[in-house]
Amino acid sequence: MKCVDCGSAALVKGTLMENSGGGTTIFKPEAVSIWKSMFGFGTRSVHAYGCLHCKHLQLAVDFSEEDLQHYQQLESGHPGVLE
Ligand SMILES: [Zn+2]
């Protein structure tokens, strides 16, 4: 992975956390209800990459194999998404 801003490969991998250290920040897809997410269903962990050169912070979502199949229709330009 490279920095999207300056192209450097000097990225420090980490995660986003609450300042108190109480818990990590997670990614909740819009399609997942808040109730489901409260029980840990449908949410995915987030990885953070900090660039040593320009200090740009980029985030990545830890999608599972099922997620890829489920959301594949978005990538193929499913007509229902934009209409
Ligand atoms: Zn950078």
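^ zinc ion complex. Residues 65-75 form the longest helix (11 residues). The CA atoms of residues 39 and 61 lie 19 Å apart.
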